[in-house]
Amino acid sequence: MEARVTAHARYTISDIDKRLYGSFLEHLGRAVYTGIYEPDHPSADENGMRRDVIDLVRDLDTPICRYPGGNFVSAYNWEDGIGPRDERPTRLDLAWHTSESNHVGIHEFADWADSANTEMMLAVNLGSRGLDAARNLVEYVNHSGGSYWSDLRRKNGRAEPWDVKLWCLGNEMDGPWQVGHKSADEYGHLANETAKAIRAFDDKLELVVCGSSHSNMPTFPQWEATVLEHTYEQVDYISLHMYFENYEKNTAEYLALPEKLDRYIGTVGGVIDYVKGKKRAKNDVRISFDEWNVWYHERKQDAERMKTWGWPHAPVLLEDIYNFEDVLQVGCILNTFIRRSDLVRIACIAQLVNVIAPIMTAPGGPAWKQTIYYPFQFASRYGRGTALQLDVACGSYNADVAANVSYLDIAGVHDGDAGTLTFFAVNRNGEEPMDISLSLEGFGSAKSVEHTLIKHDDLEATNTRLNPDNVKPEAQTGAKIAGNSIHVSVPAYSYSMITVQ
Ligand code: AHR
């Protein structure tokens, strides 16, 4: 089949905030313990952090990492994770029914983030705790010295404040599963008062208020309207979460789900405008899509296993093994964020290591890249610059979730400084290859084109410890320049990155 795409230098969507390629690490399963932290591992650094994992995270080039949860944060006492390690308490984590040793806390995570070349995005507990614990944490993390909490940080070995800019006001407070779940009015009031207290400390901090955990939530989108009516003038972002599933093994339907994501974003954009108008507010609120990923491969089994265990420390949990089909899905999700980058300024893949993650580790053994590592890495490294409003002419199909789903899912980014145009293209047609003609207007003449392809004949192909390179990108040679056009042929069900210079 054929697809014609036109990109014009003046038809732009938005500059892309690099934090669109953020990540997330929760005290959950083996994300922290035997994920990033394993003092006995041969690659461990002086802080007990696995260097092999740090290298893989650095290569992903993820500019922010949200921490420490997730559901975990809603019953977390951050003070448990400071001071001498051997004096820290072991606590029962109510979110995941596990034991938390607190061997990793804010100091260790901050050092790790520094090594991994990522900035911290911290969440405060508005579930079991409230304003006071939140403002103490902000003071501990960001105040230079001369106060109780900042001096305690200094005593604990860190003289300089970390100067964390981005703070989440709780996590998924709309979810009945959340420890300390609240109604939209209860949460909105608490989030607003907490935001005011944090702003009294530093009004330059960026604050994220909780939106919906999923567009399927019965309270969506009234939740957003009520919460923003309480908080609009005190916050910068409203968070959204969404996980993608394919229990039915229906690839066409699965790959249409980003259309639902797009509608979700659009609806919340409408709610933001409504509340802004109603309040005659001057400030803008944007979206922080701070949890997204494919999550279904191990989900039901995990729920059963959790019923059978006591309070294990760092058990195997949420360790989805991703396949080639998920490469296509992650590519389409990231394309949606790029096309919505005027509204979605921040997004975090959930999560980063072992727990629904692009990076896996074996305790004492190697670390390797899951299939989804690659589309995330490509977007994060090469999807920086200005998002382009592309005109796309291509065949489409009807799915239950949306009609007229284009077989070609494509996003384009112009990096004016580097002088590059990068297109991320997913062929959602499983029957036919696709000839793509990219017409480039107003960018000057193209000198070179590179095509990188991810393709596997088996949609269920995975990367494992024993076969870590089963699904991986391959450079192609067939892409051609003809005048102002680029011609690229891509196989059925495939992911491509096309770079023009
Ligand atoms: O990422 C796994 C969990 O999904 C998070 O803890 C929670 O916020 C969401 O429900």
Automatic annotation (TrEMBL):
Name used for this protein in its record: non-reducing end alpha-L-arabinofuranosidase
Tagged with keyword Endoplasmic reticulum: no
Alpha-L-arabinofuranosidase C-terminal domain sequence ranges: 290-494
InterPro entries xrefs: Alpha-L-AF_C (IPR010720), ASD1_cat (IPR055235), GH (IPR017853), Glyco_hydro_b (IPR013780)
GO molecular function: alpha-L-arabinofuranosidase activity
Lineage top rank: taxon: Bacteria
Catalytic reaction(s) noted: Hydrolysis of terminal non-reducing alpha-L-arabinofuranoside residues in alpha-L-arabinosides
Oligomeric form and interacting partners: Homohexamer; trimer of dimers.
Family named by the database record: Belongs to the glycosyl hydrolase 51 family.
Top-level class of the enzyme under EC nomenclature: hydrolase
